[in-house]
Write a structure and sequence with these properties.
The complex is a heterodimer of chains A (215) and B (303). Chain A contains six helices and ten strands, in the order αβββαβαβαβαββββα. In chain A, the strands form two sheets. Chain A has an eight-stranded mixed β-sheet. Chain A has a two-stranded antiparallel ribbon with strand order 7-8. Chain A is globular. Chain A is of the alpha+beta class and 215 residues long. Helix content of chain B is 73%, strand content 1%. With 303 residues, chain B is mostly helical. Chain B starts with 5 loop residues before the first strand and ends in a 6-residue tail after the last helix. Classes of the chains: A alpha+beta (215), B mainly alpha (303). Chains A and B meet through helix 1, helix 3, strand 8 and helix 6 of A and strand 1, helix 1, helix 3, helix 5 and helix 8 of B.
Amino acid sequence: MNGSSPLLSAAVLALALLASACGAASSTSLAAEGLPRQDDGWHGLPLEVGRSLPDVTLRTTDGEPFTLTEELTGDPTLLFFGYTSCPDICPVHLAAIASAMETAGVTYEEIDVAFVSVDPERDDPARIEDYLANFSSSMIGLHAELPVIADALSQLDLPGPVVEGEDPRGEGDLIGHPAQVIGFDADGEARRVWPFGARRSDWVDDLPRMVEEWS
Amino acid sequence: MTVAWWCSSTPGQIWTWRYTPFLGVWTVAATLIGGYVVTHRRAGRPLDRALFRRWCLGVLALFVVSEWPLGQLGVGYLASVGVARYVVYTFVAAPLLVSGIPTWMVDRWFPFGTRREQVLTSLTRWPTGLIVFNVVLFGTHLPVVVDTLKVTQLGSFGVDVMHLGAALIWWWPAIRREKARGAIQEPIRAFYLFASSVLMFVPAAFLTFSPLPLYGLYELAPPLWLGFDPTADQQAAGIVMNVVGGFVLWGIIAGLFLSWSREQEAADDLTRRQRDQRTLARMQVMADAEMAANEGSAPTRDG
Protein backbone atom coordinates (compact mmCIF):
# COMPACT_ATOMS: atom_id res chain seq x y z
CA MET A 1 0.00 0.00 0.00
CA ASN A 2 1.54 3.30 -1.00
CA GLY A 3 1.53 6.43 1.09
CA SER A 4 -1.26 7.99 -0.92
CA SER A 5 -4.02 5.89 0.52
CA PRO A 6 -4.63 6.89 4.13
CA LEU A 7 -8.36 6.77 3.46
CA LEU A 8 -8.07 3.14 2.46
CA SER A 9 -6.10 2.45 5.64
CA ALA A 10 -8.68 4.40 7.58
CA ALA A 11 -11.47 2.33 6.10
CA VAL A 12 -9.74 -0.90 7.10
CA LEU A 13 -9.10 0.45 10.59
CA ALA A 14 -12.68 1.61 10.80
CA LEU A 15 -13.99 -1.81 9.97
CA ALA A 16 -11.76 -3.41 12.58
CA LEU A 17 -12.95 -0.89 15.15
CA LEU A 18 -16.53 -1.56 14.27
CA ALA A 19 -15.97 -5.23 14.93
CA SER A 20 -14.53 -4.66 18.34
CA ALA A 21 -16.37 -1.66 19.65
CA CYS A 22 -19.53 -0.91 17.81
CA GLY A 23 -21.58 -2.07 20.75
CA ALA A 24 -24.72 -3.03 18.88
CA ALA A 25 -25.26 -6.55 20.02
CA SER A 26 -27.99 -9.13 19.97
CA SER A 27 -30.74 -8.90 22.54
CA THR A 28 -30.51 -12.59 23.35
CA SER A 29 -27.64 -14.88 24.02
CA LEU A 30 -29.87 -17.81 23.20
CA ALA A 31 -29.56 -19.61 19.94
CA ALA A 32 -32.88 -18.81 18.37
CA GLU A 33 -33.61 -21.96 16.44
CA GLY A 34 -36.48 -23.00 18.70
CA LEU A 35 -37.07 -26.43 20.18
CA PRO A 36 -36.13 -29.27 17.86
CA ARG A 37 -38.80 -31.84 17.11
CA GLN A 38 -38.45 -34.89 19.38
CA ASP A 39 -38.55 -38.45 18.10
CA ASP A 40 -42.24 -38.63 19.02
CA GLY A 41 -43.01 -35.51 16.98
CA TRP A 42 -43.43 -33.07 19.87
CA HIS A 43 -41.30 -29.97 20.43
CA GLY A 44 -42.09 -29.79 24.14
CA LEU A 45 -39.74 -31.88 26.24
CA PRO A 46 -41.18 -34.97 27.97
CA LEU A 47 -41.00 -35.15 31.76
CA GLU A 48 -39.09 -38.13 33.07
CA VAL A 49 -40.55 -37.89 36.60
CA GLY A 50 -44.29 -37.92 37.13
CA ARG A 51 -45.77 -34.74 38.63
CA SER A 52 -49.34 -33.61 39.13
CA LEU A 53 -51.02 -30.24 39.36
CA PRO A 54 -49.98 -28.68 42.69
CA ASP A 55 -52.55 -29.08 45.39
CA VAL A 56 -52.86 -25.42 46.33
CA THR A 57 -55.62 -22.85 46.33
CA LEU A 58 -54.90 -19.53 44.66
CA ARG A 59 -57.22 -16.64 43.82
CA THR A 60 -58.52 -15.44 40.47
CA THR A 61 -58.46 -11.79 39.48
CA ASP A 62 -62.10 -11.68 40.60
CA GLY A 63 -61.02 -12.73 44.08
CA GLU A 64 -62.55 -16.18 43.84
CA PRO A 65 -60.64 -19.14 45.33
CA PHE A 66 -59.15 -21.36 42.66
CA THR A 67 -57.90 -24.82 43.57
CA LEU A 68 -55.66 -26.00 40.76
CA THR A 69 -56.40 -29.71 41.18
CA GLU A 70 -60.13 -29.04 40.89
CA GLU A 71 -60.35 -26.22 38.38
CA LEU A 72 -57.72 -27.28 35.90
CA THR A 73 -58.66 -30.91 35.39
CA GLY A 74 -60.94 -31.97 32.57
CA ASP A 75 -58.99 -30.14 29.88
CA PRO A 76 -55.30 -29.96 29.05
CA THR A 77 -53.59 -27.05 30.81
CA LEU A 78 -50.56 -24.85 30.25
CA LEU A 79 -49.29 -23.47 33.55
CA PHE A 80 -46.75 -20.66 33.75
CA PHE A 81 -45.30 -18.82 36.72
CA GLY A 82 -44.23 -15.23 36.01
CA TYR A 83 -44.86 -11.61 36.93
CA THR A 84 -46.29 -8.63 35.14
CA SER A 85 -43.13 -6.48 35.38
CA CYS A 86 -41.03 -9.21 33.75
CA PRO A 87 -39.20 -7.52 30.88
CA ASP A 88 -38.48 -10.45 28.62
CA ILE A 89 -39.30 -14.12 29.12
CA CYS A 90 -42.85 -13.82 30.49
CA PRO A 91 -44.28 -11.55 27.79
CA VAL A 92 -42.48 -13.49 25.04
CA HIS A 93 -43.85 -16.83 26.28
CA LEU A 94 -47.40 -15.51 26.70
CA ALA A 95 -47.39 -13.72 23.34
CA ALA A 96 -46.13 -16.87 21.62
CA ILE A 97 -48.84 -19.04 23.20
CA ALA A 98 -51.63 -16.54 22.44
CA SER A 99 -50.53 -16.12 18.84
CA ALA A 100 -50.04 -19.84 18.29
CA MET A 101 -53.49 -20.64 19.75
CA GLU A 102 -55.00 -18.34 17.15
CA THR A 103 -52.87 -19.65 14.29
CA ALA A 104 -53.50 -23.29 15.20
CA GLY A 105 -57.22 -22.70 15.70
CA VAL A 106 -57.12 -23.98 19.27
CA THR A 107 -59.51 -22.32 21.73
CA TYR A 108 -59.19 -21.54 25.42
CA GLU A 109 -62.10 -23.91 25.99
CA GLU A 110 -59.93 -26.71 24.68
CA ILE A 111 -56.77 -25.77 26.55
CA ASP A 112 -56.64 -23.79 29.81
CA VAL A 113 -53.78 -21.31 29.97
CA ALA A 114 -53.04 -20.25 33.54
CA PHE A 115 -50.63 -17.52 34.60
CA VAL A 116 -49.59 -17.52 38.26
CA SER A 117 -47.94 -14.37 39.56
CA VAL A 118 -44.77 -14.82 41.59
CA ASP A 119 -44.79 -11.15 42.58
CA PRO A 120 -47.68 -10.65 45.03
CA GLU A 121 -46.24 -7.35 46.17
CA ARG A 122 -46.79 -5.59 42.82
CA ASP A 123 -49.23 -7.84 41.01
CA ASP A 124 -52.67 -7.03 42.31
CA PRO A 125 -55.69 -8.59 40.55
CA ALA A 126 -56.39 -5.56 38.37
CA ARG A 127 -52.81 -5.40 37.22
CA ILE A 128 -52.76 -9.10 36.35
CA GLU A 129 -56.00 -8.73 34.40
CA ASP A 130 -54.71 -5.72 32.46
CA TYR A 131 -51.46 -7.51 31.77
CA LEU A 132 -53.10 -10.66 30.39
CA ALA A 133 -55.41 -8.57 28.23
CA ASN A 134 -52.32 -7.72 26.17
CA PHE A 135 -52.19 -11.36 25.10
CA SER A 136 -55.65 -12.83 25.61
CA SER A 137 -58.40 -12.03 28.08
CA SER A 138 -59.21 -15.76 28.09
CA MET A 139 -56.01 -16.61 29.97
CA ILE A 140 -56.57 -17.34 33.65
CA GLY A 141 -54.74 -14.94 35.95
CA LEU A 142 -53.97 -16.26 39.44
CA HIS A 143 -52.31 -14.87 42.53
CA ALA A 144 -51.60 -15.79 46.14
CA GLU A 145 -49.26 -15.01 48.98
CA LEU A 146 -45.64 -15.93 48.42
CA PRO A 147 -45.61 -19.06 50.67
CA VAL A 148 -48.49 -20.53 48.65
CA ILE A 149 -46.65 -19.83 45.39
CA ALA A 150 -43.47 -21.36 46.80
CA ASP A 151 -45.46 -24.41 47.88
CA ALA A 152 -46.94 -24.80 44.38
CA LEU A 153 -43.51 -24.57 42.79
CA SER A 154 -42.06 -26.94 45.35
CA GLN A 155 -44.68 -29.58 44.52
CA LEU A 156 -43.42 -29.36 40.94
CA ASP A 157 -39.79 -29.67 42.08
CA LEU A 158 -39.14 -26.11 41.01
CA PRO A 159 -37.30 -23.43 43.01
CA GLY A 160 -39.23 -20.47 44.39
CA PRO A 161 -38.92 -16.89 43.15
CA VAL A 162 -35.97 -14.75 44.21
CA VAL A 163 -35.27 -11.03 43.92
CA GLU A 164 -32.37 -10.60 41.50
CA GLY A 165 -31.63 -6.90 41.54
CA GLU A 166 -32.94 -3.68 40.15
CA ASP A 167 -34.79 -3.42 36.85
CA PRO A 168 -32.79 -1.06 34.59
CA ARG A 169 -36.09 0.37 33.35
CA GLY A 170 -36.73 1.71 36.83
CA GLU A 171 -39.69 -0.56 37.51
CA GLY A 172 -38.59 -2.00 40.83
CA ASP A 173 -36.89 -5.34 41.25
CA LEU A 174 -36.27 -8.10 38.75
CA ILE A 175 -37.50 -11.45 40.01
CA GLY A 176 -35.94 -14.74 39.06
CA HIS A 177 -38.38 -17.62 38.55
CA PRO A 178 -38.71 -20.84 36.55
CA ALA A 179 -38.93 -20.04 32.85
CA GLN A 180 -40.69 -23.14 31.57
CA VAL A 181 -44.33 -23.58 30.67
CA ILE A 182 -45.66 -26.86 32.08
CA GLY A 183 -48.21 -28.87 30.17
CA PHE A 184 -50.74 -31.02 32.09
CA ASP A 185 -53.15 -33.49 30.59
CA ALA A 186 -56.86 -33.55 31.39
CA ASP A 187 -56.17 -35.70 34.47
CA GLY A 188 -53.80 -33.08 35.85
CA GLU A 189 -50.64 -35.07 35.17
CA ALA A 190 -47.62 -33.08 33.99
CA ARG A 191 -46.58 -34.43 30.63
CA ARG A 192 -44.22 -31.96 28.97
CA VAL A 193 -42.40 -28.67 29.47
CA TRP A 194 -41.50 -25.86 27.10
CA PRO A 195 -38.47 -23.90 28.32
CA PHE A 196 -37.85 -20.36 27.11
CA GLY A 197 -36.65 -20.68 23.54
CA ALA A 198 -39.86 -22.35 22.34
CA ARG A 199 -41.08 -20.54 19.25
CA ARG A 200 -44.55 -20.00 17.83
CA SER A 201 -43.95 -22.60 15.17
CA ASP A 202 -43.21 -25.11 17.97
CA TRP A 203 -46.46 -24.22 19.73
CA VAL A 204 -48.45 -24.35 16.49
CA ASP A 205 -47.30 -27.96 16.11
CA ASP A 206 -47.79 -28.97 19.74
CA LEU A 207 -51.10 -27.31 20.72
CA PRO A 208 -53.34 -29.41 18.45
CA ARG A 209 -51.57 -32.53 19.69
CA MET A 210 -52.33 -31.51 23.26
CA VAL A 211 -56.01 -31.28 22.40
CA GLU A 212 -55.93 -34.54 20.50
CA GLU A 213 -53.84 -36.67 22.86
CA TRP A 214 -54.33 -35.13 26.31
CA SER A 215 -58.04 -34.39 26.46
CA MET B 1 -30.19 -26.45 21.55
CA THR B 2 -29.82 -23.52 23.92
CA VAL B 3 -32.84 -22.71 26.06
CA ALA B 4 -33.49 -21.02 29.39
CA TRP B 5 -35.00 -22.78 32.39
CA TRP B 6 -34.71 -19.84 34.72
CA CYS B 7 -36.03 -16.37 34.05
CA SER B 8 -33.12 -14.25 35.12
CA SER B 9 -33.30 -11.02 33.18
CA THR B 10 -29.93 -9.78 32.05
CA PRO B 11 -29.87 -6.00 32.43
CA GLY B 12 -27.70 -5.62 29.30
CA GLN B 13 -30.37 -7.32 27.23
CA ILE B 14 -33.48 -5.56 28.51
CA TRP B 15 -34.38 -2.68 26.25
CA THR B 16 -34.29 0.74 27.89
CA TRP B 17 -34.55 4.16 26.30
CA ARG B 18 -31.35 5.22 28.00
CA TYR B 19 -28.77 6.61 25.56
CA THR B 20 -25.82 4.28 25.15
CA PRO B 21 -23.13 5.75 22.89
CA PHE B 22 -21.34 3.28 20.63
CA LEU B 23 -17.80 4.61 20.66
CA GLY B 24 -16.77 2.37 17.78
CA VAL B 25 -19.37 3.97 15.51
CA TRP B 26 -18.24 7.49 16.47
CA THR B 27 -14.64 6.49 15.81
CA VAL B 28 -15.46 4.97 12.43
CA ALA B 29 -17.37 8.07 11.30
CA ALA B 30 -14.58 10.41 12.43
CA THR B 31 -11.95 8.20 10.78
CA LEU B 32 -13.77 8.07 7.45
CA ILE B 33 -14.25 11.85 7.27
CA GLY B 34 -10.81 12.64 8.70
CA GLY B 35 -9.16 10.18 6.31
CA TYR B 36 -10.92 11.80 3.35
CA VAL B 37 -9.63 15.26 4.28
CA VAL B 38 -6.11 14.04 5.06
CA THR B 39 -5.90 12.21 1.74
CA HIS B 40 -6.71 15.44 -0.09
CA ARG B 41 -4.16 17.43 1.91
CA ARG B 42 -1.40 14.89 1.36
CA ALA B 43 -2.14 14.84 -2.36
CA GLY B 44 -2.20 18.64 -2.47
CA ARG B 45 -5.68 18.57 -3.94
CA PRO B 46 -8.44 21.00 -3.03
CA LEU B 47 -11.63 19.52 -1.59
CA ASP B 48 -14.40 19.37 -4.15
CA ARG B 49 -17.32 20.62 -2.09
CA ALA B 50 -19.98 18.65 -3.94
CA LEU B 51 -18.05 15.38 -3.61
CA PHE B 52 -17.14 16.06 0.02
CA ARG B 53 -20.80 16.76 0.81
CA ARG B 54 -21.78 13.40 -0.68
CA TRP B 55 -19.05 11.59 1.24
CA CYS B 56 -20.12 13.22 4.52
CA LEU B 57 -23.79 12.42 3.89
CA GLY B 58 -22.84 8.80 3.21
CA VAL B 59 -20.91 8.62 6.47
CA LEU B 60 -23.81 10.32 8.27
CA ALA B 61 -26.24 7.72 6.92
CA LEU B 62 -23.95 4.92 8.16
CA PHE B 63 -23.63 6.64 11.51
CA VAL B 64 -27.34 7.19 12.09
CA VAL B 65 -28.30 3.56 11.51
CA SER B 66 -25.30 2.13 13.37
CA GLU B 67 -25.45 4.29 16.51
CA TRP B 68 -27.92 3.91 19.36
CA PRO B 69 -30.88 3.51 19.17
CA LEU B 70 -31.31 2.30 15.57
CA GLY B 71 -28.14 0.19 15.61
CA GLN B 72 -29.18 -1.67 18.75
CA LEU B 73 -32.84 -2.00 17.81
CA GLY B 74 -32.04 -3.32 14.36
CA VAL B 75 -29.45 -5.81 15.50
CA GLY B 76 -31.39 -7.41 18.29
CA TYR B 77 -34.95 -6.22 18.81
CA LEU B 78 -36.96 -5.25 15.73
CA ALA B 79 -36.85 -6.93 12.33
CA SER B 80 -38.38 -3.80 10.76
CA VAL B 81 -35.51 -1.64 12.01
CA GLY B 82 -33.03 -4.34 10.93
CA VAL B 83 -34.35 -4.15 7.38
CA ALA B 84 -34.48 -0.35 7.50
CA ARG B 85 -30.77 -0.41 8.38
CA TYR B 86 -30.14 -2.64 5.37
CA VAL B 87 -32.05 -0.24 3.12
CA VAL B 88 -30.07 2.75 4.38
CA TYR B 89 -26.72 0.95 4.12
CA THR B 90 -27.50 -0.24 0.61
CA PHE B 91 -29.53 2.48 -1.03
CA VAL B 92 -28.41 5.62 0.77
CA ALA B 93 -24.95 5.28 2.29
CA ALA B 94 -23.30 3.16 -0.40
CA PRO B 95 -24.25 5.29 -3.45
CA LEU B 96 -23.29 8.48 -1.62
CA LEU B 97 -19.91 7.05 -0.65
CA VAL B 98 -19.20 5.68 -4.13
CA SER B 99 -20.16 8.96 -5.78
CA GLY B 100 -18.18 10.99 -3.26
CA ILE B 101 -14.77 9.60 -4.26
CA PRO B 102 -12.93 11.78 -6.79
CA THR B 103 -11.46 10.10 -9.85
CA TRP B 104 -7.89 11.07 -8.95
CA MET B 105 -8.29 9.23 -5.65
CA VAL B 106 -9.43 6.07 -7.43
CA ASP B 107 -6.42 6.39 -9.75
CA ARG B 108 -4.09 6.66 -6.78
CA TRP B 109 -5.59 3.76 -4.88
CA PHE B 110 -6.00 1.51 -7.86
CA PRO B 111 -3.38 2.45 -10.47
CA PHE B 112 -3.93 0.79 -13.82
CA GLY B 113 -2.01 -2.42 -14.32
CA THR B 114 -1.67 -3.20 -10.62
CA ARG B 115 -3.08 -6.19 -8.78
CA ARG B 116 -5.38 -3.94 -6.79
CA GLU B 117 -6.84 -2.51 -9.95
CA GLN B 118 -7.39 -6.01 -11.33
CA VAL B 119 -9.23 -7.04 -8.17
CA LEU B 120 -11.39 -3.91 -8.29
CA THR B 121 -12.14 -4.36 -11.97
CA SER B 122 -13.13 -8.00 -11.59
CA LEU B 123 -15.30 -7.27 -8.54
CA THR B 124 -17.08 -4.32 -10.11
CA ARG B 125 -17.95 -5.82 -13.48
CA TRP B 126 -21.70 -5.41 -13.70
CA PRO B 127 -22.58 -9.13 -13.89
CA THR B 128 -20.40 -9.75 -10.84
CA GLY B 129 -21.97 -6.81 -9.02
CA LEU B 130 -25.44 -8.09 -9.79
CA ILE B 131 -24.59 -11.59 -8.50
CA VAL B 132 -22.76 -10.39 -5.36
CA PHE B 133 -25.54 -7.98 -4.44
CA ASN B 134 -28.31 -10.52 -4.80
CA VAL B 135 -26.43 -13.38 -3.14
CA VAL B 136 -25.81 -11.14 -0.12
CA LEU B 137 -29.39 -9.83 -0.17
CA PHE B 138 -30.88 -13.32 -0.19
CA GLY B 139 -28.20 -14.98 1.96
CA THR B 140 -28.20 -12.48 4.80
CA HIS B 141 -31.99 -12.55 5.11
CA LEU B 142 -32.24 -16.31 5.42
CA PRO B 143 -33.54 -17.19 8.90
CA VAL B 144 -30.73 -19.66 9.56
CA VAL B 145 -28.12 -17.03 8.72
CA VAL B 146 -29.78 -14.27 10.76
CA ASP B 147 -30.32 -16.56 13.75
CA THR B 148 -26.76 -17.84 13.59
CA LEU B 149 -24.80 -14.67 12.87
CA LYS B 150 -26.78 -11.91 14.53
CA VAL B 151 -26.76 -13.52 17.97
CA THR B 152 -23.12 -12.51 18.37
CA GLN B 153 -21.57 -9.08 18.12
CA LEU B 154 -18.95 -10.24 15.65
CA GLY B 155 -21.59 -11.97 13.54
CA SER B 156 -23.74 -8.83 13.45
CA PHE B 157 -20.74 -6.84 12.41
CA GLY B 158 -20.00 -9.39 9.68
CA VAL B 159 -23.54 -9.03 8.32
CA ASP B 160 -23.22 -5.22 8.28
CA VAL B 161 -19.89 -5.46 6.45
CA MET B 162 -21.41 -7.82 3.89
CA HIS B 163 -24.33 -5.45 3.32
CA LEU B 164 -22.12 -2.42 2.87
CA GLY B 165 -19.46 -4.27 0.85
CA ALA B 166 -21.98 -5.81 -1.54
CA ALA B 167 -23.72 -2.46 -1.97
CA LEU B 168 -20.45 -0.67 -2.77
CA ILE B 169 -19.57 -3.33 -5.35
CA TRP B 170 -23.07 -3.16 -6.82
CA TRP B 171 -23.21 0.64 -7.08
CA TRP B 172 -19.69 1.07 -8.42
CA PRO B 173 -20.30 0.28 -12.12
CA ALA B 174 -23.61 2.16 -12.05
CA ILE B 175 -22.33 5.37 -10.48
CA ARG B 176 -18.64 5.67 -11.37
CA ARG B 177 -18.30 7.23 -14.81
CA GLU B 178 -14.76 6.10 -15.67
CA LYS B 179 -15.28 4.02 -18.80
CA ALA B 180 -11.82 2.48 -18.45
CA ARG B 181 -12.95 1.05 -15.11
CA GLY B 182 -16.04 -0.69 -16.39
CA ALA B 183 -18.66 2.05 -16.00
CA ILE B 184 -21.87 0.87 -17.59
CA GLN B 185 -24.07 3.03 -19.78
CA GLU B 186 -27.76 3.22 -20.43
CA PRO B 187 -29.77 1.18 -21.13
CA ILE B 188 -27.72 -1.57 -19.43
CA ARG B 189 -27.48 0.54 -16.29
CA ALA B 190 -31.23 0.93 -15.98
CA PHE B 191 -31.68 -2.81 -16.49
CA TYR B 192 -28.92 -3.54 -13.97
CA LEU B 193 -30.53 -1.48 -11.22
CA PHE B 194 -34.10 -2.42 -12.08
CA ALA B 195 -33.30 -6.16 -12.08
CA SER B 196 -32.15 -5.96 -8.48
CA SER B 197 -35.14 -3.94 -7.40
CA VAL B 198 -37.40 -6.67 -8.80
CA LEU B 199 -35.43 -9.50 -7.18
CA MET B 200 -35.71 -7.69 -3.86
CA PHE B 201 -39.45 -8.36 -3.92
CA VAL B 202 -38.78 -12.06 -3.23
CA PRO B 203 -37.36 -11.79 0.32
CA ALA B 204 -39.71 -8.86 0.96
CA ALA B 205 -42.70 -11.05 0.06
CA PHE B 206 -41.55 -13.80 2.43
CA LEU B 207 -41.30 -11.27 5.24
CA THR B 208 -44.64 -9.70 4.48
CA PHE B 209 -46.73 -12.81 3.98
CA SER B 210 -45.25 -15.37 6.36
CA PRO B 211 -47.91 -16.15 9.03
CA LEU B 212 -45.25 -16.89 11.67
CA PRO B 213 -42.09 -15.04 12.67
CA LEU B 214 -39.20 -16.24 10.52
CA TYR B 215 -36.42 -15.04 12.78
CA GLY B 216 -36.11 -16.51 16.25
CA LEU B 217 -33.77 -13.67 17.17
CA TYR B 218 -36.49 -11.05 16.87
CA GLU B 219 -39.28 -13.35 18.04
CA LEU B 220 -37.55 -14.15 21.33
CA ALA B 221 -36.13 -10.67 21.92
CA PRO B 222 -37.40 -8.70 24.91
CA PRO B 223 -40.42 -6.77 23.63
CA LEU B 224 -40.24 -2.99 23.54
CA TRP B 225 -43.81 -2.72 24.72
CA LEU B 226 -46.52 -5.07 25.99
CA GLY B 227 -48.68 -6.56 23.30
CA PHE B 228 -45.89 -6.18 20.78
CA ASP B 229 -46.33 -8.69 17.98
CA PRO B 230 -43.22 -10.03 16.19
CA THR B 231 -45.32 -11.07 13.19
CA ALA B 232 -46.53 -7.50 12.69
CA ASP B 233 -42.95 -6.31 13.09
CA GLN B 234 -41.88 -8.79 10.41
CA GLN B 235 -44.63 -7.61 8.07
CA ALA B 236 -43.44 -4.05 8.60
CA ALA B 237 -39.93 -5.26 7.71
CA GLY B 238 -41.23 -6.67 4.42
CA ILE B 239 -43.02 -3.43 3.63
CA VAL B 240 -39.91 -1.39 4.44
CA MET B 241 -37.82 -3.55 2.11
CA ASN B 242 -40.42 -3.56 -0.62
CA VAL B 243 -41.87 -0.09 -0.55
CA VAL B 244 -39.19 2.09 1.01
CA GLY B 245 -36.29 0.19 -0.58
CA GLY B 246 -38.13 0.11 -3.88
CA PHE B 247 -39.00 3.81 -3.82
CA VAL B 248 -35.48 4.84 -2.91
CA LEU B 249 -33.98 2.65 -5.60
CA TRP B 250 -36.50 3.65 -8.25
CA GLY B 251 -35.95 7.28 -7.30
CA ILE B 252 -32.23 6.82 -7.88
CA ILE B 253 -32.87 4.96 -11.14
CA ALA B 254 -35.16 7.78 -12.27
CA GLY B 255 -32.59 10.39 -11.24
CA LEU B 256 -29.78 8.62 -13.09
CA PHE B 257 -31.98 8.11 -16.15
CA LEU B 258 -33.01 11.77 -16.22
CA SER B 259 -29.41 12.83 -15.79
CA TRP B 260 -28.42 10.54 -18.66
CA SER B 261 -31.23 11.84 -20.87
CA ARG B 262 -30.18 15.43 -20.14
CA GLU B 263 -26.60 14.55 -21.09
CA GLN B 264 -27.85 12.89 -24.25
CA GLU B 265 -29.98 15.91 -25.03
CA ALA B 266 -27.04 18.23 -24.46
CA ALA B 267 -24.84 16.04 -26.65
CA ASP B 268 -27.53 16.02 -29.35
CA ASP B 269 -27.84 19.79 -29.11
CA LEU B 270 -24.10 20.16 -29.47
CA THR B 271 -24.06 17.85 -32.49
CA ARG B 272 -26.98 19.68 -34.02
CA ARG B 273 -25.35 23.06 -33.43
CA GLN B 274 -22.09 21.86 -34.93
CA ARG B 275 -23.96 20.44 -37.93
CA ASP B 276 -25.91 23.68 -38.31
CA GLN B 277 -22.72 25.67 -38.09
CA ARG B 278 -21.12 23.47 -40.74
CA THR B 279 -24.23 23.84 -42.92
CA LEU B 280 -24.24 27.59 -42.42
CA ALA B 281 -20.56 27.78 -43.22
CA ARG B 282 -21.08 25.68 -46.33
CA MET B 283 -24.02 27.83 -47.40
CA GLN B 284 -21.98 30.92 -46.77
CA VAL B 285 -19.22 29.55 -48.96
CA MET B 286 -21.73 28.73 -51.66
CA ALA B 287 -23.35 32.12 -51.37
CA ASP B 288 -19.96 33.81 -51.57
CA ALA B 289 -19.05 31.71 -54.58
CA GLU B 290 -22.34 32.51 -56.24
CA MET B 291 -21.94 36.17 -55.54
CA ALA B 292 -18.41 36.10 -56.90
CA ALA B 293 -19.65 34.28 -60.00
CA ASN B 294 -22.46 36.77 -60.44
CA GLU B 295 -20.08 39.64 -60.08
CA GLY B 296 -17.75 38.07 -62.71
CA SER B 297 -20.50 37.44 -65.28
CA ALA B 298 -22.64 40.54 -64.72
CA PRO B 299 -22.53 43.12 -67.56
CA THR B 300 -20.74 46.26 -66.54
CA ARG B 301 -22.36 49.64 -66.74
CA ASP B 302 -19.75 50.42 -69.32
CA GLY B 303 -20.37 47.03 -71.02
